[in-house]
Design a protein that fits this description.
Layout (H helix, E strand, L loop, with lengths): L13 H15 L4 H12 L14 H28 L11
Amino acid sequence: MQCQNQSLADSDAQIAHDLRREVLALMQQGRDDAQIKQFLVERYGSFVLYRPPMDARNALLWFGPPLALLAGAGVLVWVVRRRGRRIQPIEQREDHW
């Protein structure tokens, strides 16, 4: 999908054009908003929604970025502490001038 983070009306992606035609056809058949949404979710999955609900299938999308940020911060702290242990203060070195 090329129209992520855009509404169906705002996107110029080809899939958005196709979905707009499909929604229009469903409206002409007399379906209401809930029925159209249900049809699109059944056919394309919850990712077709502008704000998909959080469930087990897309939990990584919701929690992945914060977890990656925390993991990166943890690695950074670990590296800094490890380097700090290897560096001795000048007073403790034998070869200081």
